[in-house]
Amino acid sequence: MCGIVGYAGGAQAAPILLHGLKKLEYRGYDSAGIAVRDASSAHIEVIKAKGRLDRLMDMTGGGQAVCGMSGVGHTRWATHGEPSAENAHPHYSREKRVVIVHNGIIENYQEIRDMLERRGYRFHTQTDTEAAALLLDCAYAGEDGNSPQERAVHAIRTTMLRLQGSYALGILFHDQPDVVYAARRDSPLVVGRCTGEAHGHILASDVPAVLSYTRDVVYLDNMEIARITKDTLDIYSIDAERISKPMMHITWDAQAAEKGGYEHFMIKEIHEQPAAVRDTLSPRIVSRNGAPDTDLTETGLTDEEIRRIQRVLFVGCGSAYHAGLVGVGVTEALARIPCSAELASELRYRNAPVQPGTLCVLISQSGETADSLAALRLCKEKGMKTLAIVNVVGSSIAREADAVLYTHAGPEIAVATTKAYSAQLAALYLLAVHLSSRRAAISPAQKQELLEALTALDGKIKQALGEKTRIQRFANTFAACRDVFFIGRGLDHALCMEGSLKLKEISYIHSEAYAAGELKHGAISLIEDGTLVIGAATQPQVFAKMLSGIAEVKSRGACVLALSAQADDRLAEAADFCIGLPGTHPLFAASVGVVPLQLLAYYIACERGLDVDKPRNLAKSVTVE
Ligand code: G6P
Predict the structure, then answer these.
(1) In what order do the strands lie in the sheet with 385-390?
(2) Which fold has domain 464-613?
């Protein structure tokens, strides 16, 4: 979703802004723009274009054609108003007295627009953002602070208090050369100190945009304002008081966010899954008295608290929700605690009764998904203990939850998540083993068996990747299909939901995931000659049932691809194609089963010639509701 970059320093701003925007491309966008202030002429140049960033690059000669050492840039994912050059950011008031870029949604923009129109302001776009720009202009005109700085901070503060919704803003004032302001509420912003040739300060929606210039960043918190110049970084609270915040050092490698020889980020990230799973698991599996044990001190849960848990509620969106469904199956099976998974966007408005003793596990790769963040706040408000499973260090969900269990998947760039989902599964398995052993719901021998299976899991995922050539061939054959059904039972149903989502996201083929036993209650009427059905059969207790389910669709003309770790002649006979999965503990089978499904979606999308890493209409980090 929209990305923001701002820079003030000793180098030409435009190439830095464009470079930063390039690194935010993964968030999804449909237009882009930059505003650069030339201190010598006091002119702010604004250049915007619909479509890919390359167009903006061409229009500005990679930024070389735009002169000035401070500016803001933006990639837009349309919410209010169609994707067009006019609606692209930056937006500005008359004579560009105030220029802003915005990520988020201004919910009360119509009310603000009406009020400003009554005061004689004219609007030129259909965006909600223009209302924020003109409101800030109005507040700035009315301020009479001691210094330009004080005027600006007070005007931003007044504007923030008036705006409803979510926003990260990057701001230029016409009469303040070489200064960039920023403010946030519920949309992420980091500010970094650049060294070397780009000496100065940079701000952005996400770390990859600043990594080429700095590793030392400050994460802005909600309702904070930042002011950057070449030499200074000042942060203010919403009361306009100066505050000091610690710099955090980013340890991950800039190369981790590069393609490294792969054709797409997605296929690179699929291959990084063994490492993501290993890095998430291994620091938390320790040896105690000669046997493996979990170390989840970071959850802050004492053994006594664990024993008192009455229910576990897993919450997330998209793939994170699907990981939560696996969490339900595994935690209920091992810890014998009643569990449920909720879509964050539903939980928010459902007014669900709170059961005392509920542990709420929030799952999010980005840690910034608007619905998940709102659900977290709601759960906290209702008195639940909250634990976040998050990939992005320092993100909003990580900071606001009572405790965090970080997944160590590294930066994930492709919009369709793969390695972060796998790392979430790993964290959820660990949590389930931890809760069950502390509640004495499993024996020491069972714990040892489970932890040994987890320790071997990265190797099994690697083995599953070995099938990629066969899957590619299969994908090429089916790339033109129209509908695909994924069927499975229990944990395999959750796995199917993730497989189906991957296919929809990047190949634009309609697909559905069905609990195999439910198909006969309606959807089986859609099966006809040649319909592709993917049957997941990793769960031994329902293996025979899956054989029947596959036979049912087969006899109606379906072409079946079966996934199973069990070498069974009956399955080989029932299905048209079989993908053998490496054997692992059945409770952890989603981790190996998902690999062929990801590869299938990937190769089908490639065969169809689609933009795998940046699928249409989708955004990596959904920071609006
Ligand atoms: C978007 C992404 C999905 C992701 C979901 C939740 O829709 O495209 O891949 O699963 O958001 O994101 P989160 O960052 O909260 O895991």
Answers:
(1) 339-343, 311-316, 358-364, 385-390, 403-406
(2) Rossmann fold (3.40.50)
